[in-house]
Amino acid sequence: MEYFVIGDEDTVLGFSLVGVSGIACSSPEDVKAAWSKATEDREHGVIIITDDCAAAIRETVDRYLFTMSFPLVVEIPSRKGSSSSDLRELVNEAIGVSI
Predict the structure, then answer these.
(1) Which residues span the domain enclosing 91?
(2) Structure pTM?
(3) CATH number of the domain encompassing residue 89
């Protein structure tokens, strides 16, 4: 099982430093294409997506969050977000495993 990240360039770069592949997106079309790529590969067991990217395809993300059991979708704050939670804490809480 692999992780896959969809987000802005800084987020994707940060995750790539720990070996997580992903796609940087700058438009809703980019997000749709990245989502399709992420869900095509059954090895992607956890999709990490920034909140601004998730907002661009909210209906699709919500369908996976509430009706699909695979892959697990973890929505994290974008670099522009104002969340007070630690990113590691958010991912650990969502997947139940400490990374």
Answers:
(1) 2-95
(2) 0.80
(3) 3.40.50.10580
